[in-house]
Amino acid sequence: MKRLFILAAAALFLCGTANAQEALWSRTAITSPEVNQDGTVTFRYFAPKAMSVQVTGDCIAVRGTNAEGKEVTLNRANMKEGKGGIWEYTTEVLEPELYKYNFIVDGLTTVDPSNVYVNRDVASVFNIFIVSKEKGDKGWLYQANDVPHGNVSKVWYDSPTLKMKRRMTVYTPAGYVGGKDKYPVMYLLHGAGGDEEAWPTLGRAAQIMDNLIATGKAKPMIVVMTNGYPAIPAAPGEWQAGMYKPGMSGTPGGQPVASMQESFPDVVNYIDKNYRTIAKKSGRAICGLSMGGGHTFMISKEYPTMFDYIGLFSAAANLHKTEMRDGRRVNLEEYDPQTEAQLAALFAAKPKLYWIGIGETDFLYNGNKEIRGYFDSKGYPYEYYESPEGHIWRNWRIYLSVFAQKLF
User: Fold this and answer.
1) In this structure, are residues 157 and 166 in contact, taking their beta carbons and an 8 Å threshold?
2) pLDDT digit string (tens) for 310-357?
3) Which domains, and CATH codes, for the chain?
């Protein structure tokens, strides 16, 4: 009986292996995307029964008309069916950059089955590829090159303020493991709907830091990427709530027992205790995008002697008093006196750098302009960086690259 059981199990295993091999080898051989020598990129998709196939993403820019009939630039292009049911589209010449895209097959959005490189942004999934033309361009900066690599760890830490164990991502530079030197720390915060996996994946933080450090453009540093939702311990699928659908509100957490800024010293204390850090103001930087920029704004003014370097990336920051109206928090006309007092204390402590970056079409542009105007009226020193386009990862990767070179 035992022998028969073993033979049956072996047969099932071989059958499963054969099915897996069949699935692997029976696919139509397609290269997609293909980065061509002239800088264009060709996409291919096998769909012999499809009526229409389109490619959409930030790598597509074609002239067309919108729903109102106005001529605009569209990020969607029609692919052309060729031999064997393979649809194809070739872009214009693309500049060095990390790009994302999806296919739309008969109205259904899907990823490219020929490209295994996939990222998640909140609840959206898309493929990525990188275009690089020479060492030092943006594509080169965002890819893994033949340079010394740091380590990236997923770390659980205790937050007494929030009364829970929480997860964060920690990058340590090449040379940290096995060494004795102490390092400065940059705390890097994500935006709404993100988590501790946003900057390592969408932001290419480890690749950027490896390449900047290897070329001598940035000092070796530890980078700490936290989860910005104080009611949620970790990224979706990484804690007891299971594999829920992510959302912009950070669902499914309840009401936190404390705010992000109130709990942030727990993060700093853990890092200083468990890593070889330069545990003082001159050895700490904090920065973040969108919601994380708002957190940076609040944390830095809450603890004016904790950080010497502060970076707001398209920050959702606010100077005004607020109140709840019809379930929504709205700004009042007057500035919040507590915020004004905290900012005065922060700049009295003379931070070495207060850096503000934003895109020229960002929906938060006017709010950041108001903050800059307020700083100007008070004589608070800051550096300003304005880029094209809006509230997108393409800008935030640039801001990290620029800001990191100015630290320590």
Assistant:
1) yes
2) 999 999 999 998 887 877 778 888 999 999 999 999 999 999 999 999
3) 27-131 (2.60.40.10), 140-404 (3.40.50.1820)
